[in-house]
């Protein structure tokens, strides 16, 4: 039985590798639904290939997209049409955060690379009054709820990869080429620390090994 399960998991891994899709981009439209129809300044922290920054530019007067990797930022610039109000910056957001205040800050699959509490404090201080912070992050599975969500996500993940690629084998999306590392905080740890820094923050576990955090500055 154990051997059969191991074979099934290896087959699923091979299928997923042949039909990859971007779990982070899956949440971009959801992120937009948490934001006003129009706003002035936005910052996208850990912008990667710039997909979310370009979507934000459809609503914002100006978007500052920040990533610590020069090669990733160079690629994001190449993918961005001229005329979009997006500025891509190579920076360590902890040492050199964007200047000024922002109506919107987004951070997708990046905060687990940063000192969590300090990063939230930086984001909080960058927000203008009434501004909105949206984080989609990764947490370490711990406990029955997380493991159940992981089990549910596995077949759904394969189905999504099949549908998004039209049933064909596909290369990894450009947005998935960035280096990453596993999360080390559990969802409960994340929720506890986040609510101590951002009172009233809304946190939820999500499918595809993600969680969401939404906070509006008073």
As laid out across the biggest beta sheet, the strand order is 3-2-1-4-5-7-6
Q: Say which CATH homologous superfamily of the domain at 25-139 and 182-216 is assigned.
A: Vaccinia Virus protein VP39
Poorly predicted ranges (pLDDT <50, ≥5 residues)?
none
Query: Radius of gyration, Cα only, in angstroms?
Result: 18 Å
Distance between the termini: 55 Å
Fraction of residues in H or I helices: 25-40%
Class based on secondary structure composition and strand pairing: alpha/beta
**What's the number of helices?**
7
State the major sheet.
Answer: 7 strands, mixed
Number of strands: 7
Within the CATH hierarchy, at the fold level, what is the topology of the domain at 25-139 and 182-216? Answer: Rossmann fold
Order of helices and strands: HHEHEHEEHEHHEE
Secondary structure blueprint with pairings:
Layout: H1 2-18, H2 28-33, E1 39-45, H3 51-56, E2 60-67, H4 70-79, E3 86-90, E4 102-108, H5 116-126, E5 127-137, H6 144-164, H7 187-197, E6 202-206, E7 210-216
Parallel strand pairs: 1-2, 1-4, 2-3, 4-5
Antiparallel strand pairs: 5-7, 6-7
Helix pairs in contact: 5-7
Can you describe this structure?
- By secondary structure, this protein is α/β, with parallel strands linked by helices.
- It has a domain at 25-139 and 182-216: 3-Layer(aba) Sandwich (Rossmann fold).
- Helix content is 38%, strand content 23%.
- The protein has seven helices and seven strands; from the N terminus they run H-H-E-H-E-H-E-E-H-E-H-H-E-E.
- The protein has helices at residues 2-18, 28-33, 51-56, 70-79, 116-126, 144-164, 187-197, and strands at 39-45, 60-67, 86-90, 102-108, 127-137, 202-206, 210-216.
- A seven-stranded mixed beta sheet has the order 3-2-1-4-5-7-6, sandwiched between helices.
- Helix 5 links the parallel strand 4 (102-108) and strand 5 (127-137).
- Helix 5 packs parallel to helix 7 (187-197).
- The longest helix has 21 residues, at 144-164.
- The termini are far apart.
- The mean pLDDT is 87.
């Amino acid at each position: 039985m154990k051997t059969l399960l191991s074979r099934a998991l290896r087959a699923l891994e091979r299928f997923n590798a042949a039909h990859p899709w971007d779990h982070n981009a899956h949440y971009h439209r959801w992120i937009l639904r948490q934001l006003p129809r129009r706003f002035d300044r936005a910052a996208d922290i850990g912008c990667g290939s710039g997909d979310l920054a370009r979507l934000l530019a459809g609503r914002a007067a100006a978007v500052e997209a920040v990533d610590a990797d020069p090669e990733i930022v160079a690629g994001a610039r190449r993918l961005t049409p001229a005329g979009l109000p997006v500025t891509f910056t190579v920076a360590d957001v902890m040492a050199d955060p964007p200047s000024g205040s922002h109506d919107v800050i987004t951070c997708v699959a990046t905060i687990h690379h940063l000192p969590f509490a300090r990063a939230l404090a930086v984001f909080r201080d960058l927000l203008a009054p009434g501004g909105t912070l949206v984080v989609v992050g990764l947490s370490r599975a711990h406990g029955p709820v997380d493991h159940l969500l992981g089990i549910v996500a596995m077949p759904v993940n394969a189905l999504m990869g099949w549908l998004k690629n039209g049933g064909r084998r596909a290369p990894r999306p450009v947005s998935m080429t960035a280096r990453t590392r596993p999360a080390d905080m559990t969802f409960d740890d994340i929720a506890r620390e986040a609510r101590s820094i951002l009172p009233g923050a809304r946190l939820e576990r999500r499918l595809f090994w993600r969680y969401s955090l939404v906070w509006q500055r008073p």
